[in-house]
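EI: anyone free to look at a 212-residue chain?
SC: sure, send it
EI:
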Amino acid sequence: MDLSDLRQSYTKDSFSESDLLESPFAQFELWFREAEQCDLEEPNAMCLATADANGLPSTRVVLLKDFSENGLTFYTNYQSRKAAELEANPQAAANFLWLPLQRQVNVIGRVERVTKAESLKYFLSRPFSSQLGAWASPQSQIITSRSILETKLDQMKRKFAEGKVPLPDNWGGYRIVPESFEFWQGRANRLHDRFMYQRDKSGQWRAQRLAP
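SC: here you go
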């Protein structure tokens, strides 16, 4: 396929030094709220990049489920590929692409497990079907057919017919503790606005403009 002519011009907005908030957490929250307001489907979807102990990378889209100055939290099966890579190499990057706003945010940082209490609180907030799915799927493992999943799901429906589903031992959250934020605003002529926040020696966040 020749995709050389597939392009768009980014002219919706600009992003200058005077627009920068002091905290990258406040800047992220502002942009996230604006993404919500433009009716973007799943604004909390982020492309999560991890790598194994040998540096072999992998990516997948997951959903951000909590954000604060402590970091960005998502949930998964602790026996999945992403979890195995995070246990071996607890560093990750997350990219948010908000095309209607012609914006991206990239966050890089170390990764830690959230507490079991945090995982339980979120798990109990999930729909009943999603709770069952966490029990039914051996995430990232090879299976011979979809019927294996459907059979397992039927078993879980019978097992937890009363509606009380406990937190699986192999399921919970991870938190990305940011070491850098990059905010990207598309501009005309591919001269995009890019700013990276990093901590200085005193621990304060500082933003610098990057060439596009």
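EI: The CA atoms of residues 51 and 57 lie 4 Å apart.
SC: 👍
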